[in-house]
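=== RUN LOG ===
request id: a7f3
mode: sequence -> structure
chains: 1
length: 198
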Amino acid sequence: MTLQTYRRIGIYCGSNDGVHAGHREAARALGALLASQGIAVVYGGGRIGLMGALADAALATGGEVIGVMPHALVQREVAHHGLTALHIVDSMHERKALMAELSDAFITLPGGIGTLEEFFETWTWAQLGVHTKPMGLLDTDGFWHPLRALLAHLDTAGFLRGAPQQWLVQAATPDALLAALHRFEAPVTRRWLRLGET
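=== RESULT ===
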């Protein structure tokens, strides 16, 4: 098996800390781990919540951190101005597109509606063949168990064509998740299925 290498990994995560301290610690651990392996962090550019913890830990470990943020959020003074680079874009759509372009893989940490929206859109792109980059879920303290149950339900109900779960790599710790991403092999999929095909 050939191990995958990554120059930059896009991270989706909350702009809040959440109620469990373990989520913040996992964000910090992931930032430090990526930096220690020479992998740049690409993220939403915030200085607060899990976003800030991730970025600060990566920077403190000597890593490269690239933020992407729309003008409207910069004006609310949530932008992190100590990053390696901060790209200011016009919209949330442009933010996601640029993050996807800059990243070789993606990891989703705990977060809210915005984090889920970013995760699902990028995962959809993989299913449609827009990219062949792996998607990682950092399942700290079982945070993503309800999502996994929902995905199993969608599969059983016949709504997940083309086995999109093959694009998902899941682990409970940053070390285990990054190791799994290095072992990832992109599945062979078709972009579209005709009616009646499976």
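=== NOTES ===
Residues 8-157+164-182 form a domain with the Rossmann fold fold (CATH 3.40.50.450).
The helical segments are 21-36, 49-60, 71-74, 92-102, 113-128, 145-156, 174-182.
=== END ===
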